[in-house]
Specification:
Chain lengths: 347, 347
């Protein structure tokens, strides 16, 4: 395998493959980058004869991807060539203009950037449990698609297959628009007095973290996907107008906030796990010191995972209750266990 | 001390004060909340005579703050009363309409919400190294201001003093606008196909994390500060129009992205530390296996902190270099140390 372009993504792929025992060769337009990548354990700098590679991974900056793929398809007659570009239609159009056989090119996109760049921050775990999109086309052989799927698998990623155009819409929605919203939020700080900045807390830091990303790379990505990105920005512009209009109407404002909450929750947990359905078990909180600690320790000993917790008050009985959300499959176990340990349940 | 309202903020203040050895009394409109707060170690449920409290902390939901402060000023004749509301002008106007003596009321605002609410998630460390804004007025005695400053200090927070109106502008800039940008980003996902959501990575999760916050509390905050918030949204609307217009112009687009990057960097490090000035030491990367690991271990042994790192390539000499950013006070030490250990420096 040959990796062409040993920035964060290329070098991390190299580290992951090397760890799996694969022989990985590295090349970069800037030899210092390849040297650092090799130093991080991404592979070796020596090269085979061009015809000896079976898989070539193009991980250059976005603007160089199409020309590099074309070049490598020509040089490596026996290789499947894939790339890691985050916009796929622009690459494909540029390749189609060149009138070359593209049956050995299978597009792919590992979804795992950070705000860092360059081989120094490369790690083999970068793709573990992340999504790696494949964008195969009818002209690709099943065997060539399989070779790229295997690559993603060796890196620990989950593969998703999407049509080229569909992929670009999806990244505009879940990656490029959020990037620009982060940029807009951060850019607005230029109006703020310096004395106001110490009030910044974790919230704005979360929202503006990705605004610190390398601007040149993002300029290339956004330019390549500008049609889909413009559509997303147009939608947000309409929502922004709506938001400005509902600021004086508490009910409509709260509906708007709920729409945002639902959107955020639709992304599921940290690793893309869906927020699962849960069943509620309601336990009475006794008015005794240490009762809560004992309650949690009892739940722990049963080994049931608490998905969510909230406090409720029963007006009629003037008592406090804990609503415990658990996996529906474990709810009956938990109820029996709690009764057995003398906790009061609300039926 | 008495804490009125034992949600996340009130209960966490109680936990912090209790840990410092203070005697803290808890009250909540919902007794179950106070019970849970006590169970988390925030204080005790028994109450003293109203005149025996020296400090009363009102930590109720925003819409109840003004009436609760008025009530507590009347009941606790010897107490300084403070609050934790995140919008201060609205509270002050509501209090001034009541024609009561406000000399014992000192406004304050601990800046440390999370997306969680309620006493179950209370922790004593919530305010450590966070900003706690005081908004004293000329009618407050120095002693009453000092009592609130001491409260913030016991919780481990850094105090900042701002004029009431200035505070509200600042929170619109660094907290309320980012909240709404997060909401807008998350709300836009309603247009996305379900099959596109698995492509969501860490970036959009960061941007939309706070959109999951409790909507009722945010509706109250935003309504209370709607004048300042509207101004911020108007600014962003102008920037959004600009952004849509520059999408086709790579240079202008990159300038826009840089404006965002500068804004994000103006917030400084994780705990509000300013991004410090650094000095660059440039070390040649030898083309030998294991060289990089040894280089970092040599730097480690000197005990110099690496603030930033990048790879450079010297075209003329066809060699690779590492640019190492360090504290200017340590740069000469590092240079001497590296020379001593046979590393090549670029002068």
């Amino acid at each position: 395998m040959l990796i062409v372009g040993t920035g964060l993504i290329g070098a991390s792929i190299g580290c992951a493959l090397t760890r799996q025992g694969a022989e990985v060769h590295l090349w970069d337009l800037d030899p210092a980058n390849a040297m650092v990548a090799a130093g991080r354990g991404a592979g070796v700098l020596s090269l085979l004869d061009p015809g000896d590679y079976r898989l070539v991974i193009v991980a250059t900056p976005p603007s160089a991807v199409a020309s590099t793929i074309a070049e490598r398809l020509r040089w490596h007659r026996n290789a499947v060539v894939t790339d890691t570009a985050s916009v796929k239609s622009a690459v494909l159009s540029a390749l189609r203009e060149r009138d070359i056989d593209l049956s050995r090119y299978v597009g792919s996109h590992p979804m795992s950037g950070t705000q860092y760049t360059g081989p120094l921050t490369a790690v083999p775990e970068l793709f573990v449990d992340r999504t790696w999109v494949l964008t195969p086309r009818p002209e690709n052989s099943a065997e060539s698609i399989e070779r790229v799927r295997m690559l993603a698998g060796l890196c620990g990623a989950r593969t998703v297959t999407l049509d080229t155009r569909d992929h670009d819409t999806a990244v505009a929605e879940v990656s490029h628009l959020p990037q620009l919203m982060s940029i807009l939020t951060a850019a607005n700080l230029r109006h703020a007095a310096r004395s106001h900045l110490p009030l910044a807390g974790g919230g704005i830091r979360d929202v503006t973290r990705i605004a610190q990303s390398q601007t040149e790379m993002w300029r290339q990505i956004l330019t390549a996907n500008r049609t889909a990105v413009r559509e997303q920005l147009g939608q947000v512009r309409e929502d922004l107008d709506t938001l400005i209009n509902v600021l004086d109407d508490p009910d409509e404002l709260e509906s708007f906030l709920k729409m945002g909450r639902a959107g955020a929750r639709s992304l599921g947990g940290k690793h893309g796990r869906e927020l699962s359905e849960t069943t509620t078990v309601v336990v009475e909180i006794p008015d005794r010191p240490g009762a809560l600690a004992r309650l949690f320790s009892d739940i722990d000993r049963l080994g049931v995972n608490i998905e969510d917790l909230s406090v409720e008050h029963d007006q009629a009985r003037d008592a406090g209750f804990l609503s415990i959300e658990v996996d529906p499959a474990r709810a009956d176990d938990l109820r029996a266990w709690m009764r057995e340990h003398d906790w009061g349940l609300r039926s």
